[in-house]
Amino acid sequence: MNQQALIANARRKALRERRKREGAFSRDDLLSLQVSTVPRWKRIVVSTFGLCSLIGGIIAMIQTDSWILASLFIAFGLMLIYIGAFKRKKTIDSALNGIDAGTTTNILDAIWDAL
Known about the structure:
The longest helix has 24 residues, at 40-63. The protein has helices at 3-20, 27-31, 40-63, 67-86, 92-95, 101-114, and strands at residues 34-36, 89-91. Strands 1-2 form a two-stranded antiparallel ribbon. It is 74% helix and 5% strand.
C-alpha cells in the first residue's frame, strides 16, 4: 500500500475515533488504530469472486444432486466474502514498521495534523 493511501485511511479512521471519544486523543491511541492495508478495489474484487462462488454453489445445489460440490462452492464463497470484507487490517504502528524513521515521522505528522 502506498503512503498516500495509508495516510488517507488513517486520517479517516482517526477522525472517526476522535469524534467517538470524549477525552484527549494521544499518539498511542493513534498508533493503535486499525486501518485497512489492502486497496478498496482489491477487496471488492475478492468479495465479488466470493459472491459468484456462493451463487454458483446455490445453483449447483438446486440443479444437481451433488451436495458436496455445492457445499464446497458455498463455503469457498463465504470465505472469500469474509476475507474481502474484514481481513488485512493492521494497526498503524505495525503498518509503519517496515518504513524508515524519517518517512514514518512524516506520515504520523500528516495524520496528526488532520486531527
